[in-house]
Structures are given as C-alpha cells and as structure tokens.
Design a protein that fits this description.
By secondary structure, chain A is an alpha/beta fold. Chain A is built from ten helices and ten strands. In chain A, helix 3 packs across helix 4, helix 4 crosses helix 6 and helix 6 runs parallel beside helix 7. The two termini of chain A are 32 Å apart. In chain B, helix 5 runs antiparallel to helix 6 and helix 6 runs antiparallel to helix 7. The chains are: A alpha/beta, B mainly alpha.
C-alpha cells in the first residue's frame, strides 16, 4: 500500500491488567476508507479511540507500541493531544450536536481556534455543510436549534462540525447504526465522497455497510487483528478461517 | 445445529446433485440409443426427463435469486451460489445436447458399421464417464478431483477431432456416406460439447473451493496440474 497515513506498530492496550488490544500492527492508507469489523468486545472501537487518544480519558488505560500518524508517534510525550484531535476528527454512534443553533454548532470549533471574522466563519459553515451534503436542507434555517433536526440530519451536522476544523482523518464509530435506511445511505454516500479529501476509519457491525463503503477492511477478534486486506478480497476470498466464519455468520 | 441459511445451501446443493444425476441419465440414454438401434419408447423417456431438468433449472435460479436478495452471501457462500447458477445452466445444456444426439442418431444409416469404423463407441463411453466424474466432483466439492476431468476432456476432444477428420475423408471419396457422415459429425460435436460443459462445471467447482477463476486462460494440461 502506498501513501500510508497511519502506521501502527505492536500497539497493545490494557484496561488495568486486562489486555484489550494485542500487539496490533497495521498500515492505514491515506484517502481511503478503512472499515474495522468484528464481534462486540473484539477491540475495534478501543482501537479506533487509540487513533485520536480518546482512551487517555480513561484512567486505568495503559498503551504500549507505536501509533504513527504521518510518521509522528502520537503517544510521544512531546505531542500536544489537542492538536492531535484537531487533526483527527471523530463521529460517534449517537449524534451529539451542541444545544445551540445549527450555525453555532459548525462555527464553534473554528471560533475556539481563534477565528473571529464573520465572513470567514460564514464561509466555513457553508463549506462544511455542503461537504456533509446537508447545506440544501439547512441553509434557510441556520439559526434554528440543532436539536430540532432529525437523527440523520443531526448525524450529518456532526460530520459537518468535524469537517469545520479541517481534519486530515475522520474516525467514525458506528455512524449510521441508529439511522433509518435512507439516512444510512446518505451517510454512506457521504463517506464515499469525503474520502477524496480525508482518510476515514469506520467501525461498523453492519457487514454490508463495511462492504459497501470501505476500500480496506480489518477484522478484529478478542483484541487481535486477524486479517486486513482490500475489502473486495476480504468479502470474496478471506485468507483466515476466522474471518471467513465471521463474515459468513458461522462464528462461535 | 445448522442455521437456516446453511439448510438453504444444503437444499440447493441437493437439487444440483439431482439435476446432475438426471443429466447423467440423459447422456447414458443417448449413448445407448446411439450405439444400439433407436427405440421409440426410449425417446419418450429422454423427453420426459428433459422437462424435469428444465423445471429444476428454473428452481435453482429462483433459489439463488432469493439467497442473493435475502442473505447477501459472501466469501465461499457467494462463490458456491454463483457457481450453482452457472452449473445448473451447464447441466441443462448437457440435457439438451443428449436429446439432439438421439435425434441425429436416427438419421444415420448403417450406423453400426460407421460406429465401428470410426471408434465412436469409445468416445461415447468416455463422455458417459466424464459426466459421472463431474457429478462426483460437484458432490464432493473436491478441488483436486477436477484435474482428471480436464485430462479426460482433452482426450475426448482429440478423439473427436480425429474421428471427424476420418469421416470427412470418407465422405470425400464416397458420396453415399455424406448424409450419414454429416449426421455423425454433428453427433460427435454434441459429444464434444457435453465434455466441454463437464469441464466448465469442474472449473466452477475449482472456483468455489479455491477462490480462483481458471476458465478461459489455460490449457487443460495446465489446469490439471493446478
């Protein structure tokens, strides 16, 4: 794989004494969608949260190994975690807009980063909403509360909010699991369009969603990375029996 | 305990085995009629079986369509179902060709002499054998069992080519042999096609088991070595 965005070397994560991730080594390519699949508790979300150091917030967590983002080890003590999270945005399973207007939700990030110019902010709000394919639906109600939007709209608003701070990488943890099929298909289409500019890593329980949206798929089981490869290969001719058993529903 | 989906796959497999056996019977019946004097009753049996094959062919298509729509199969399941649709098609063609052989065989005068003269019986028996081996190969889903079929197909093709060459030469010098000779050439071409369909089935079994497409790109010898 050329143009590697994230290089993971022997990364292990412990919750206290319990090892939740076991020496994960993988390369995540730039400007591609990488799906993380596996049964509940396999470590895929834990791994996703390692990529922008969200696990730092859990006191018992300790991490060994390396997570190199564009060659920089993000767990190096000299690295500023705030800068990491600016560069690596995240979208969660449940949409979590701020209890503010649609406009303020998007403008919030750039504003706390020091941007004050109204014209610039307006531009960012419009660009972000357009990128998230929701501008046409919301352009006439930017001052309305974000909490009044539908679930699907709220999730796309959260994606737009992530885009507003110009990240390089977007992490998505089950971004469509609470949405209806139409909203899900909009999110999936959006993921497809966004990969031109961003590196996207998506955790999903929905096997077909992984197959539809991603270029590469990594299968996790019990804290181990069992297999990673091109999505087309993983879903047509997986190498490992455990992968085959999982994707064909014969697991356990 | 087998899941609902696994039971559907087992059902599909058993229907393909069934349609395969029917086609095997058709080939065997056609070879019998070719090598012996035709009898009207046998013609009827072969036609009746053809109807059964057609119905099963449609049933297989319906089952596969339903599995694609409802189960979204992947990996080895996906390969098996893709192959099932193709194999069913190949088997149905084998059935059609058996009927064509019977029809043409009726138009061959002094058939016994010609069959003896051009070693047609050996070729016909080999074609019978390849259909049996192909059915066994599908039933066992044994990727290694395909090699024998590729080799056998090559032998059949060579024998057919030789026989056709000899028949054409005979027709050149003996104009009375043209009508029977032409019909015999068509019969040989049908036998050769049956063998090719068996090879195609073996290629689909190979694809199902090994996740590798080998049709089109290689000689029978190379395929047999895989």
């Amino acid at each position: 794989m050329k143009d590697i965005k994230i290089k993971v070397n022997d990364l292990s994560l412990y919750y206290g004494d319990k090892k939740a991730l076991n020496e994960i080594t993988m390369d995540i390519p730039a400007n591609k969608v990488t799906a993380l699949i596996g049964p509940s508790g396999c470590g895929k979300s834990t791994f996703l949260r390692c990529i922008n150091r969200m696990n730092d917030l859990i006191p018992s967590v300790s991490i060994t190994g390396k997570m190199l983002v564009e060659g920089v080890d993000i767990y190096d003590k000299n690295v500023d975690v705030v800068n990491i999270r600016k560069k690596i945005g995240m979208v969660f399973q449940k949409s979590n807009p701020f209890p503010k207007s649609i406009y303020e939700n998007i403008a919030y990030g750039p504003r706390i980063n020091g941007m004050k110019d109204k014209t610039e902010l307006d531009e960012i709000v419009e660009t972000s909403l357009r990128q998230a394919a929701i501008w046409d639906e919301l352009k006439d109600r930017l001052d309305d509360s974000a909490l009044g939007l539908s679930g699907g709209q709220q999730q796309r608003l959260c994606i737009a909010r992530t885009l507003a701070v110009s990240p390089d990488i977007i992490l998505m943890d089950e971004p469509a699991s609470a949405l209806d099929p139409i909203s899900t298909s909009k999110i999936e289409e959006l993921v497809h369009q966004l990969k031109e500019q961003y590196t996207i890593i998506i955790v999903t329980h929905n096997m077909q969603q992984a197959a539809r949206t991603s270029d590469h798929t990594a299968f996790f089981y019990m804290g181990n990375l069992i297999e990673m490869g091109k999505t087309n290969s993983i879903f047509t001719k997986p190498v490992q029996k455990q992968t085959e058993d999982y994707i064909t529903g014969r697991f356990g | 305990m087998a899941t609902h989906f696994e039971m559907e796959l087992d059902n599909l497999k058993s229907i393909i085995k069934k349609i395969g056996k029917l086609a095997e019977g058709q080939v065997s019946e056609a070879v019998k009629i070719l090598l012996q004097e035709p009898e009207a009753a046998e013609g009827k049996i072969i036609k009746k079986t053809e109807n059964k094959i057609d119905k099963l062919d449609i049933k297989i298509d319906e089952i596969c369509q339903s599995i694609f729509a409802l189960q979204q199969p992947v990996a080895s399941d996906l390969r098996f179902i893709m192959s099932a649709m193709q194999i069913s098609n190949e088997i149905e063609r084998i059935g059609d060709l058996s009927i064509s052989i019977v029809k043409k065989a009726k138009n061959i005068k002094e058939k016994h002499d010609l069959i003896l003269k051009f070693d047609i019986a050996d070729i016909a028996r080999q074609v019978e054998l390849i259909t049996v081996k192909t059915n066994n190969c599908f039933a066992s889903q044994d990727g290694n069992a395909t090699g024998v079929i590729f080799v056998l197909n090559k032998d059949i093709r060579n024998s057919c080519e030789d026989a056709i060459h000899d028949i054409i030469n005979e027709m050149k010098v003996n104009s009375k042999a043209v009508v029977s000779g032409t019909n015999l050439v068509i019969v040989l071409k049908h036998l050769e096609r049956i063998s090719e369909h068996c090879t195609n089935i073996a290629e689909y079994v190979y694809f199902t088991v090994n996740a590798k497409i080998i049709k089109h790109d290689k000689s029978d010898d190379l395929k047999a070595e895989e």
